[in-house]
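FAQ: What does a multi-protein file look like?

Like this. Sequence, then tokens, then the next protein.
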Amino acid sequence: MVILVDGNPLDKVPDSISEFYKVHQSVVAKGSSFASQNNILVQKEYSLYVAQGEFAVVPASDAKIKYIGSDDATTCHIVIIRHASGTVCVAHFDGSKNEEAAVDTMVSKIFQIEGSVGPLELYVVGGYVAEEGSREANKNESESLSIKILGLFMRHKCQFNLFLWCTCSLNTTQGSSGPKPIVYGMAVHLSSGTVFPATFKSHDPDLPLRSASRWMGDHTVACDLYDYKTGTITIKPFNYSDVDHFAFYLKLSDQVLLNNFSTSPKVEPPSFCHDLREVFRVFVTHPNPDVTLFPNHKPKCYYMNDSGLWQLLKE
């Protein structure tokens, strides 16, 4: 079908995001307004955090979750799809060739929950314009991902009303060491449908293990994080060997980690290196995951307790 901008169909994928903005000034106005809003810290209670390479679908009727979203996006893009009834999907896309399948699954789940999809609300935030002549600018990852996401939604069988598009130049400001993103995260309040710039206080449950699972998994398939029917998050068993290189990675300086493991080393959040080391530590601490992490090859399953905190489900 199409993406609708102010009720009018977007008839072709633009050659550049600057061309898209030039033609659609209302998109610029809404994106600029969003980028100017204060960032809100989402508390850990009753929140669902979607990390890079993951997506999640939450019905409006969910008994526990009040907020869902993602943060720590630099060249990545955070996508929210919302049904008028309040059912929400959030994805954190990094350009790993998995976006189209993830969107298909998200829309299919909306249909399962709602019985119909109708025009869906679409919100996209992420990416920035790197310093001219830099390695980041030459790779042009933010622009490429923006164009890619526009294209996949235009090709989709459903209709999407574009409520927010704030990527690349609209999401760029001048920092002390050069250009950087304005908005690193986005969340939605389920009951009101309000979408806002956000940082999450907690990345539970067990983000290092979730990240380690994706590190060793199929990068062409995004992780469907949340089972809305049971209200659980499951980390399936995975195996690996030869962890010596992870022990070596743990000893590397912050700058070396940034230069080798980031698409945007100058603008990563302060926690980037710490969080990356926590992932490496999973491999080093558990050289035999089938024994210490997943005994009897059983997955780890988490549920939200009555206090709104994620908790490991005990057998």
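And here is the next protein:
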Amino acid sequence: MAYELEMSPQLEQIDGEIRDNFRALANGFQKLDKIKDPNRQSKQLEELTGKMRECKRLIKEFDRDIKDEENRNPPELNKQLNERKQSLIKELNSYVALRKTYMSSLGNKRIELFDMGAGVSEPAAEENVQMASSMTNQELINAGTKTMDETDQAIERSKMVVEKTIEVGSQTAVTLKGQTEQMGRIVDDLDSIHFSIKKATQLVKEIGRQVATDKCIMFFLFLIVCGVIAIIVVKIVNPNNTSISPIPGLAPPAPARKLLSVQVMGV
């Protein structure tokens, strides 16, 4: 039996997990026969589909480990391990076919287990899934290998999309960082301009106050000079006018009489 194979601990663990999932699938389909509500049947089928996906992943991992250990194992053991893998694939496909039968009875046209949601219309289910009873081991192996290859290709495409998304995100982050730094410099320049304008406004106000003060001083000096000139003119024109006090530093005009006597004596 497959359980008596001399497998490595890792292969034994994977094989055990696959057997546990197969038991869960068998019990799940038995419960499905007892469910009468279509909605509950659909939910149960979704849970069983998840178990099938997990089995498919484990079988792929089982196959990779067999290939990794192929050079270290004797040919007979490699043959037995490959037969074990084929039996696992056959059993999984039987559950896939059983699931398809239940889905057809429910009239639920959903995407098949191994379509991977690629968004591409696949042929009809009758062309995609063959009943396990009518398929040979080699056909099951080929179908399982093809499905795994398609899954690997879908995963690689998803990785490329993720890498491109990360690259675009990195470029966008660099661009946003540059724009943020540029905006910071613009804000600093605007602050400097605002400060300069404020200083210039204060300087203009100060100059205006100084100019106004100088004009007032010049106006008062002009009035004083005009007053002094007016007094001097009045004194010269009317020297006998005593109502005007003498201007300090300015000698009073000589009387006319004295001026005439000085002139006669000079003659």
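Q: Is there any per-entry metadata?
A: Some entries carry free-text notes. For the entry above: The first helix runs from residue 9 to 34.
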